[in-house]
Design a protein that fits this description.
single chain, binds uric acid, 2 domains, eight-stranded antiparallel sheet, 37% strand, EC 1.7.3.3, Uricase_CS, two-stranded antiparallel sheet
């Protein structure tokens, strides 16, 4: 019987890093959560307990803080690429690397005197994400957003679906559409203007959600994917996952009161879960870009 070690990777998960740029009195804050992973010549660590090539996860954690100190932290994509290149180019037993970075947004507090230099308020629940994968000389960048909570109070219907023996849901021509978008998009290259691209894609997601008259969340999701690909040539493909956060109009007729779509019960569970990938025909192949990126079709 032959038993062998399969795919493996290791690193430090969720290194919390807050960086304050103090180049002027107007501080710039970046709040990150970094997960480093190394792939390479690590068989002996697993099979023999030989740690000669085992770059300690503690060292990887320190690397995150030292590269943050030595280099200006710009876009999370640049920081993830910096980390991947540091590990793969710096140690011959490291052949590949996966760097995942999440960014929590902070906005300057505005006082009566205007935007404050060094006081901030956390943005909404949404989190900006990136996963940089390096394999030998090849690199891929998959960025995204998660927990982007959206709601429209009209402009959404759901009707014409099969009415089976088990169907109770009625057709509706006017409902609340609410979701929490998680999107990941793969860039065609590794040198986009990351911050500008993120801002534009986020704005496109919001704009398309708002202006698409929705006949189903599936239709809205595809419209979001299509408009992002149409507007952003640097994006090769986008994958979307969106819970349908149901809002049910409360039946007030037992009280002799009507409810013209004003009073809703916001259900927690269960929720519909709608997922779709949207591709560009001429996109470069995905390679290992989506490896270890869970939760999508
Ligand atoms: O937008 C929707 N898509 C569905 O597939 C679905 N199914 C359901 O019960 N409600 C909805 N809404």
């Amino acid at each position: 019987m032959a038993i062998r070690l399969g795919e493996n990777q290791y690193g430090k998960a969720e290194v919390r890093l807050v960086h304050v740029s103090r180049d002027s009195a107007r501080h710039i804050l970046r709040d990150l959560n970094v997960t480093t992973q190394l792939r390479g010549d690590f068989d002996a660590v697993h099979t023999e307990g030989d740690n000669a090539n085992c770059l300690a996860t503690d060292t990887q954690k320190n690397t995150v803080y030292l590269l943050a100190r030595e280099h200006r932290i710009g876009a999370i994509e640049d920081f993830a690429l910096l980390l991947a290149r540091h590990f793969v180019d710096g140690f011959d037993y490291v052949r590949g690397s996966r760097q995942e970075v999440e960014e929590y947004g902070w906005s300057r507090i505005t006082t009566a005197d205007g935007p404050h230099d060094h006081a901030f308020v956390r943005d909404g629940a949404e989190v900006r994400t990136t996963v940089v994968t390096r394999d030998g000389d090849r690199e891929w960048v998959v960025s995204g957003v998660r927990d982007l909570v959206l709601l429209k109070s009209t402009g959404s219907e759901f009707r014409g679906f099969p009415k089976t023996a088990y169907t109770t849901l009625a057709d509706t021509a006017d409902r609340i559409l609410a979701t929490s978008v998680t999107a990941r998009w793969r860039y065609a290259g590794t040198d986009a203007d990351w911050d500008a691209s993120y801002a534009a894609i986020r704005a496109t997601i919001l704009g398309t959600f708002a202006t698409t008259h929705s006949r189903a969340l599936q239709q809205t999701l595809y419209a979001i994917g299509r408009t992002v690909l149409e507007a952003r040539p640097e994006v090769a493909e986008i994958r979307l996952s969106a819970p349908n956060k149901h809002h049910f109009a409360v039946d007030l007729t037992p009280f002799g009161v009507d409810n013209p779509n004003e009073v809703f019960y916001a259900a927690d569970r269960p929720y519909g879960l709608i997922e779709a990938a949207v591709y560009r025909d001429d996109a470069p192949e995905a390679g290992r870009a989506w490896e270890s990126v869970p939760g999508f079709v």
